[in-house]
Amino acid sequence: KQEVTQIPAALSVPEGENLVLNCSFTDSAIYNLQWFRQDPGKGLTSLLLIQSSQREQTSGRLNASLDKSSGRSTLYIAASQPGDSATYLCAVRVHEGGSNYKLTFGKGTLLTVNP
Amino acid sequence: SAVISQKPSRDICQRGTSLTIQCQVDSQVTMMFWYRQQPGQSLTLIATANQGSEATYESGFVIDKFPISRPNLTFSTLTVSNMSPEDSSIYLCSVEKVREETQYFGPGTRLLVL
Fold this sequence. Notes:
Distance between the termini of chain B: 37 Å
Number of helices of chain A: 0
Radius of gyration of chain B: 13 Å
Radius of gyration of chain A: 14 Å
Order of helices and strands of chain A: EEEEEEEEEEE
Helix content of chain B: under 10%
Number of helices of chain B: 0
Largest sheet of chain A: 6 strands, mixed
Structural class of chain A: mainly beta
Helix content of chain A: under 10%
Shape of chain B: globular
Oligomer: heterodimer
Number of strands of chain A: 11
Number of strands of chain B: 11
């Protein structure tokens, strides 16, 4: 059974600091890995999606890496801003046969960026 | 992309009652899902809502407790039946479109059961 773990559970940093969020998964047979942002009352927003054959993806100040063989991914946020404060969720997508895929989520990292 | 709305956005309910949550998408989608996020926990898939047929439930979730409807390609409902305080969670609707490899999520319904 796939399990996804995120470390740390919570992180508080001053504005401007670079930071790294970690995600690990137990079964390396994933289809892709996705990082989401969750804001209260606003659902989940997809930040970056990395295919199993890729090593990293970048979007603005965000960079996500994937090491499938070791079951790890990191989300790097450069020059953090108070608006980055949110819960960040890692999810792996697994093929379950035919056209069926399943997302398994970690518990998330609650990030607070202090002005 | 897909724009998803959920109703209600939040509710406070009494033990033993039932609540139906609605999910509406702005375009036709192939797959619709219902997730639960209990306090401090990750999102857990409840079931896949199938159009015109019974939903497919994940282990630990049953139709009698979480009946689901999907009458067309853009709408689904999840009912939380005979509620107890343990059902207090955020319930999220999610959709997937053909040939897209990502899911889009609704804003969630925050439920508190007293």
